Amino acid sequence: MNEVAFRNLVSGKTTGLTSSVARAALSVLSVGYRFVVGLRNTLFDVQLKHVRRAEVSVVSVGNLTTGGTGKTPVVALIVQILQRHDLRPAMISRGYGSIDGQANDEKRVLERLCPNVPHEQNPSRFVAASIVTKSKDIDAIVMDDGFQHRQLHRDLDVVLIDATNPFGYDHLLPRGLLREPLSSLRRADTLLITRADMVKAERLQEIEQQVRTAAPHLADRIYRVEFRATGMIDGNGQRFPLSEFAGRCVMLASGIGNPQAFADTCLRSGMMVAGTQWFPDHHHYSAEDVRQIAEKSRQLGAVGVVVTLKDLVKLPASANFLALEIAAVIPDKAQADAFARRIQDASATEI
Length: 351
Known about the structure:
By secondary structure, the chain is of the alpha/beta class. It is built from ten helices and 13 strands.
């Protein structure tokens, strides 16, 4: 079953007896998953599993659900905040989806968003932190996708919730998309609601209230984030203004965790969508994939193919696809300043 079909199943969009039976079976599996997650967290809580410290302060960026909350642009935002305060940050991540030890798509994207910032990938974040602190002159570490990786101590735990699907269809894996129950938010220090501009104000208030109920200490630590399109870029690094594509039909292709949010961002940027081709998250494109996407675009009469930056870094420049560049923005100045202070305070923690 592909990712889109799985999401349709667990969300309830797919109906019928077979789908109902499948959801019931997934619910049974979720019970076992909940037990394993709960046991693991308990072992950390009672210190039977040990937490190790890096030599510098660590800011973790993570989420409760699988994929698609926008961690990569938020990591870039935090790195930029640290740099504005004259700090020398590094990034660490697991390297999920990499092939033959090469950099995965997130690392390649972050190399473009945060040029010259060290980035070490290793399944053990402590090992990654040790490598980067020994080999580079840095003041702080930003850990990508670190909420569930509790072996490494963090001085600030930033958790992201996607406003368009905040709680993974309200079920743990595999019945839903939740990696952990909402009660795990009690471990978080700060919460970002991403894509806050894509839902109504009433829905945002509902999400915030659910967060406060699960983790009352986060009441004054919830910030709203938007992902704003800043332009287009091709495989050779040439940039184009969004105005060149306003009102024009494009073909969308992507292999990310939340492709619909990408499509919505394109529409909000003024483009018209002639068709889409979605692949599983972290998809590695073959020459045949590229050929089929280009052919479908021609058949639909699109002016070109638009992908995400995560897709573009895995595609040959000869594909002639364009990527939509986005940036994470906290539009409310008071919230933006408060979030920046939290990052600065965490990075100033003495080890």
